[in-house]
Amino acid sequence: MKYLVLLIGDGELPPWSEHSEQEQAEVMRRFEAFDAACRDRDGVEILAGEALAGPDHATTIRTRGGSTVLTEGPYAEAVEQMGGFYLVEAPDLDVLVELLRILPPYDMQVSPAVDPY
Fold it and tell me: Which residue range or ranges hold the YCII-related domain (predicted)?
């Protein structure tokens, strides 16, 4: 099954630029450990994953009554902001949750993909 994992900052973690080089290196080690654990686990594959630019770089697109409007900024102003995502194929949610514990302490939203057929 495919799962979308959203990595969400909760407002308590400092921005990346405020981490020391040592803290940045430790965070990156945890991402690398997650990648390696997924590669080593049968039935698990990272299909996509990226860090995301901050909310100041977001564009919201809304369609109402056939009209499309673009606005600068995130969909909703909130303390929590998406920092990145993974699209992961895993046998089940329990396996994925076990692997996600390797990542830095983000809040995460995990949503299974729905087979359209």
Answer: 22-106
